[in-house]
Amino acid sequence: MNKVLITGALSGIGLASAKHFLNKNWTVVLAGRNKNNDVLDELKETYEGGFFFIKADVSKNSDVEHLYRETKMLIDGVDCIVNNAGIISHGLLHEESEKNWDDLMNTDVKSIYLTSKYFIPDLIKKGGGTIVNTASISGIAADYKMPIYNAAKGAVVNLTRAMALDYAEYNIRVNSVCPSAVRTKMLNPDNIIKYAQANPLKRICEPEEIAKAIYFLATDESSYCNGVNLPVTGGLDIWTGQPK
Length: 244
What we know:
The chain has helices at residues 12-23, 37-47, 61-75, 98-126, 147-167, 192-198, 207-218; strands spanning 3-7, 27-32, 51-55, 80-83, 129-134, 172-179, 229-232. By secondary structure, the chain is of the alpha/beta class.
């Protein structure tokens, strides 16, 4: 049975991905900063096992080391890592605090380094695996008043490429998904209509749609995809901004 680690797994894209992998009969390790008993109880009622929750702040080395050791003990490692943990910040760069910069960079970028540090050696030993990073359309284009997020997701996009080059010889494929606005807690409800109107499909992306893309990149269905930063945007990324 295939096994996957998903970070930021108790809400939004992470939770949708966990459910999708469980529906495909994968064993899932859900990592999150805070335990949510309501979510875990719902999963237990629906799936009756097949998953484990490990509390871990993946921006911290000690927590990721604990996450690795617990995962190794529970299921003897994983076949896929979904680096999904992320936060967002809004504001002009000169008005942003140093804490916001550090928190966002640590959560969105450093976390990928840390999971790689602990989990990739086992993937190499076992002969391969897959890694899927949650990047963003904000990593391949810019937004108004989101400079730290743009910088972080831009780093994830190019980190994905660099990892894909370095680990291909070990049969480890590394790709990312680059969603546009998704209906999660990170999206201000007041902006949903605006985002929908700006999109060629005239609607907001649902977390389950990103989960399907993540699963595609995690499996042999994408066996020749490596270093791909896959836009899942409804076509928003192909638009020049020219008025209709």
